[in-house]
Amino acid sequence: MTRDSRLGRWITSLPPLVYLLVFFAAPAAIMLFASFRHPGDYGGLAPWFSRGPEGLQLDLTLDNYRRLVESPVYLRLFAKSLGYAVLSTGICLLLAYPLALVIARSAKKWRDLLVLLVILPFWSNFLVRIYAWMILLSPGGALTAALNWLRALVGLEPTSLLFTPTAVVICLVYVHLPFMVLPLYANLEKHDLALLDAAQDLGASRWQRFLKVTLPLSMPGIYAGSTLVFIPVLGMFAVPDLIGGTRGIMIGNLIKQQFLESRDWPFGSVLSMVLTVGAILLALGAALLARRGGGARAQS
Fold first, then answer.
1. What DSSP letter does each residue of 204-215 carry, written as one string?
2. Which of 75, 100, 277, 282 is deepest in the core (most CB within 10 A)?
């Protein structure tokens, strides 16, 4: 590699590196340091050092982490949020894969329009869309009325969808579905259709062509889409706040509560750090799986 190419690579990678250092690494380091401090008398953070007869003394603690580990309530809330994330990601994948495949296989003149329709919800405000779902899921809303009509046919009592875990999952899927469709479409569009023709010539059925050719080639898109859906859902707090009520609370709501209501910033920092580390590990795992999948296909 020549000196000019190395210099060009450094210049190209410097802006995103500075961005990550300023807007991710530095806040994460501040949050990590805050997780070892005591809460202040009136909220916030207590001083991390004190001056005594023996000089400067650090006033840091592991009690916040001990509190997290010793209380099953917080661990159950992490597990519950993990369940929401897994369920929402799975439903998004089931809904997005056929849609992305249809878009990728459609005529070129229609693809841009179909992709535009996928991202159309982004043109409206996030909260406006959630409030619209509140109307649909309310006792007099269309979805609840349709559900209660079906329940009445089999002799069941009417029910309400709003402020339930079901409502949270519905809105999480609705909000994050485009993040699954777009990476899948970007992957599926690049597939060489000659591979499918070759498999067909060799006697493979439609289902076999999908399982043996299309699905393995689309795994990087599945990993990317699953990561883009799973991580934001894991830390979501706005949707459970507005739609889920007390039964739909997630770990993001607890973090928000610690910072804004309880003003226990050290414990909120502990929860944030655990969530951040978990998300980073999942992202690294997805990247590793995608790389291994790509390497295996390259060798084959």
1. --HHHHIIIIIH
2. 100
Quote the percentage of the chain above a pLDDT of 70. 97
Residue 192 in tokens: 């060489």
DSSP letter assigned to residue 158: P
Q: 247-260 burial, b if ≥16 CB within 10 A, otherwise e?
A: ebbbbbbbbbbbbe
Helix/strand/coil for 45: strand
Who's near 238: CB < 8 A, 6+ residues apart? Answer: 126, 127, 130
CA 271 – CA 78 distance, rounded (Å) = 9
Q: Quick check: 169 and 86 in contact, CB under 8 A?
A: no
Instruction: Give me the residue label for tokens 């969530």.
Output: 275
Express each pLDDT in 198-240 by its tens digit. Answer: 988 888 888 999 999 999 999 989 988 998 999 999 989 989 9
Residue 143 burial class via C-beta count within 10 angstroms: exposed 0-12, middle 13-18, buried 19 and up: middle
d(CA 222, CA 104): 15
Contact between 167 and 242 (Cβ < 8 Å): no
Which whole-number Å values give the CA distances from 194 to 110, 118, 147, 199, 206, in the listed order?
22, 28, 45, 9, 14
Please state the pTM of the whole predicted model. Answer: 0.84
140 residue type, one letter:
G
* Structural contact between residues 227 and 92, judged by C-beta atoms closer than 8 angstroms: no
Angle at 250 between CA 94 and CA 23, to 5 degrees: 90
| Residues 13 and 6 sit within 8 Å (Cβ to Cβ) | no
**CA dihedral sign, ordered 137, 142, 147, 152:** positive
Angle at 246 between CA 245 and CA 250, to 5 degrees: 90
Q: Over the stretch 265-282, which tens digit does the pLDDT of each residue have?
A: 999 999 999 999 988 888
